[in-house]
């Protein structure tokens, strides 16, 4: 087993190194052997270099991803701490709140630190708490982009993602609207969320796609084929619920490896993802500063090949 790393040591590493905890290193080529990825950064679209542990801001909203958080000052504190720890990819969406999540990010971090990438999404409406209804109509999406730019106080969104494919609207029409916004200089890169390989290939016939955001974690590998496709094509893969969301992640092997490293199962689950593929960019979310520090510190945990394989089984 690896040298034991205590929880205190984990957090200490992240605090001591600050913005450089995930910096440096070289990007590996595609089709690396699973479990061998060691690069701390990835270039989304070939030019947006991000540290490979991002932050998902959805949990900073109210219950049911609805409204303002009960402690707005705490949400601002978490965002500021993420930037201090070297997190330079923050994922959000206009549907989170709705709108409040983007407003919180601007409140906490604008004017933005150099190199910070804010990835947002459009195409999912919110009739009420815990309710999600896709809307991929071109005019609606173009309006979403303009409104997100205003809330985030940006001239251009670095990564804009189609939140969901609307079954009532041909994907080509939805993406055609985003292509227009990209041509107008309002979007730098375009990504997709919760899509199959065939849908990714269809989308790439309309415009360049640089990233995919599908649910994926050590217990939920439904989109394994899509991850392999992204690695082959050097597309960023941003797994949402990387530590299982409200269900968490569980297995006796996970417990054993975590115990051996004196780490939490969540830290081990994140370390497993980071070693799974060089194009993997987990975006764990939390509304707790301590949990945030623990998550970021997981980048320093290195699993042995035997541990990684046991967890992958």
How would you characterize this protein structure?
The protein is built from eleven helices and eleven strands. It is α/β, with parallel strands linked by helices. 38% of the residues lie in helices and 13% in strands. The protein has helices at 7-17, 72-84, 100-109, 138-152, 171-183, 197-204, 224-233, 252-261, 265-276, 289-297, 305-312, and strands spanning 41-44, 48-51, 55-56, 89-91, 117-122, 124-125, 133-134, 157-162, 187-193, 211-213, 236-237. The longest helix has 15 residues, at 138-152.
Biggest beta sheet summary: 7 strands, parallel
**Radius of gyration from the alpha-carbon trace, in angstroms:** 18 Å
Strand content: 5-15%
Q: How confident is the prediction overall: mean pLDDT?
A: 91
Give a quick rundown of the structure.
By secondary structure, the chain is of the alpha/beta class.
How does the SSE layout of this entry go?
Layout: H1 7-17, E1 41-44, E2 48-51, E3 55-56, H2 72-84, E4 89-91, H3 100-109, E5 117-122, E6 124-125, E7 133-134, H4 138-152, E8 157-162, H5 171-183, E9 187-193, H6 197-204, E10 211-213, H7 224-233, E11 236-237, H8 252-261, H9 265-276, H10 289-297, H11 305-312
Helix pairs in contact: 1-10, 2-3, 2-10, 4-5, 8-9
